[in-house]
Amino acid sequence: MENFYRDNRDLKFHLDHPLMKKIVALKENNYEEYSTCDYAPLDFEDAMDNYDKILEIVGEISGEVIEPNAESVDQEGPKLENNEVKYARGTQENHEVLAKAGLIGMSLPRKYGGLNFPLVPYVMAAEIVSRADAGFSNIWGLQDCAETLHEFASEEIKKEFLPRFNKGATAAMVLTEPDAGSDLQAVQLKGDISADYDAEKDVYYLNGVKRFITNGDADISLVLARSEAGTSDGRGLSLFVYDRKDAAVKIRRIENKLGIKGSPTCEMVFTQAPAKLVGDRKLGLIKYVMALMNSARLGVGAQSVGIAEAAYREALKYANERVQFGKAIIHFPAVYEMLTSMKVRTQAIRTLLYETARYVDVYKNYGFVSEKRPLEKEEKQEAKRYQRLADIFTPLLKLVASEYCNQIAYDSLQIHGGAGFMKDFPIERIYRDARITTIYEGTSQLQVVAAIRGVTAGGFLNRIKEFEGERVTPEREYLKKILVGMTTQYEQVTAWVLEKNDNEFTDFHARRLVEMAGNIIMGYLLLRDSVNNEEFEKAAEIFIKRGKSENTQKADYITNSETKDLGVFRYV
What we know:
CATH superfamily of the largest domain: Butyryl-CoA Dehydrogenase, subunit A, domain 3
CATH topology of the largest domain: Butyryl-CoA Dehydrogenase, subunit A, domain 3
CATH architecture of the largest domain: Up-down Bundle
CATH class of the largest domain: Mainly Alpha
Largest sheet: 7 strands, mixed
Radius of gyration: 24 Å
Order of helices and strands: HHHEEHHHHHEEEEEEEHEEHHHHHHHH
Number of domains: 3
Number of strands: 11
């Protein structure tokens, strides 16, 4: 059986990025636990060797257990029995194997039973699991909730809940309501602090309905609820942790979904459900969920890259085996061009995924360091810089990775032809699983709303200029010259739009502007990768040349439009 880590050399390449030295030193607090914990690393090399070994285990389990179970899980799905969600047999087996391997709560400190992993190798593990089964990756990936508790909860809550993750506890992020959807400010679930409030136990009582909750019957749930009477916006919301063993929640139903069918999506009814406040009141949405969004976007980014990798490999395999007109279809230009495009796009979103993960890693780890000692002035500045980058790159990543993932799955099914439309090949399931990535954790349209700040405030341009200053080899100067020209074009078009001083006009072209920035950024990242590893040279060349054509088309459309033209699009 395949090892999904070892059979993909791109992963080790991205794991070995130079910034990892800083990230690991921050995460390990200069390796202070080596003398007190027998599995803490001695130094950077020891830590990296540990990540490599753990990822090999993840790759082995993904190739030998999770992927072989994927088809049966898709067919069987979860069931609701006596107010409890019962996983499909394969899902249960997957979870038990990963839990026994100690791969739940990977990023948690060792004192809570975790592996103290930085985000980069954890996100890498998420990509590997997603390649094996995108539906199961939702269940496994919700250990992000543990990281949120670690970052914001009281020490009492941490001690109560965090050690349970390493023992296999499942988690859920309970945000969405039937009438709120993506507008989380409209959440109405109540955190009742009336006469039923128990001050001695510090217990709140939750009442209301939540819908579209992934893994809603989880052992530990983070719940966004309205704690402040008389409020109607985000300032009245708080975050709570709910323990399923209290059984004060009814699972009304499991949704029947198009894809990711092994992952139960539930409607939940809270009736005087006891819960504990995480952090401070009124900061549930404004601070805690917003922080959780960076991790959620990374999670969907990793899932998208994993699905794209699976779809590409299925297409490559089929194209080599399928013979038409006397030769394998991979030898036809119409097919090998599609395959090349799929591979290049997968490598592009992967390099963006790990660049973004490094930004999040640095700023979050500075936050943990600041709890132990005051940060130096330079450290504070660096933490703020990386947080600003994370805030604009995570929505860019989620937008681009999910859209590319869908296109790659579409092309893979197309290469399979009529056979791909049947349930005889995995691509049919992969294609359905891909569709959700542009929808949940904020639709592509909402990612544009978040990412456009990187255009209007100059964040993307500033980072692009930094990329421009990086060394390239003489034989790659021509690619850099193309990117410099694309940057000039992007600057001019952005300035032209902003000079209109019309928010609606800016919003109308926001996606085109964000995607133009994304093409330049991914082009520079692939160019950098090609300097460090010649295997990426073709990918850089193909992506940059195509990016230039795409950006020229977008720029032409934008600069040939006027504010008055927007009325044309209101005819529906």
